[in-house]
Design brief:
The protein has about 180 residues and is mostly helical. The protein has 9 helices and no strands.
Length: about 180
């Protein structure tokens, strides 16, 4: 009886693993189809496909990518309200250990708010990104913060963040701009 129970549990475990792998492959295939539509500039059909994936597999980790791509699709269509909503959805469902996806979502949410003209909200997201330890996009966040503060008319803070950016990245045009500002 103990041996039968062992094999029953082993079979159930293998069946669950097989089912999860099969679902994962199905989601990957559907995301690939939606990406193909996105890259063919068929943004509305791509968005529809991403929404279908999210509705069917919303709790699966791979559905996070569908949320991210859906947000990108709305951003490309300049529908900033929907783009921001879906970037926030990515951040809401994100597992704690997925730092790269968190960084991408924060950066893109910042870009969305910046393009939308909501510079305060953009700066908040870029600040969160700049504070992540070991962030791959930290330099970009400094540059974006400098840009936001410059557009808000705050040259002092813009200069601070531009200098932080230049400490990580070489940019001759930005260096010239800073030189002109400091000469004024």
């Amino acid at each position: 009886a103990g041996l039968a129970a062992f094999f029953l549990l082993l079979g159930a475990g293998w069946g669950l693993f097989y089912y999860k792998a099969k679902i994962g492959n199905r989601i990957s295939g559907e995301i690939a189809q939606a990406l193909e539509l996105y890259h063919k500039d068929n943004l509305k059909e791509g968005a529809k496909k991403y929404r279908e994936i999210i509705e069917r597999y919303g709790k699966n980790n791979q559905a996070l990518w569908a949320r991210l791509y859906l947000a990108h699709t709305y951003f490309q269509q300049r529908d900033f309200d929907k783009a921001a909503k879906w970037y926030k959805e990515v951040l809401r469902y994100l597992p704690e250990d997925n730092n790269l996806l968190k960084e991408i979502a924060l950066l893109d949410l910042g870009y969305t708010y910046e393009e939308w003209g909501k510079l305060d909200q953009a700066a908040k997201n870029y600040t969160l990104l700049s504070q992540l330890e070991g962030s791959f996009f930290q330099g970009l966040s400094y540059h974006a913060l400098g840009r936001c503060y410059e557009h808000m008319g705050n040259k002092k803070d813009a200069l601070t963040y531009y200098k932080k950016y230049l400490a990580k990245q070489e940019d001759e045009l930005l260096q010239e701009k800073i030189g002109r500002w400091e000469a004024e």
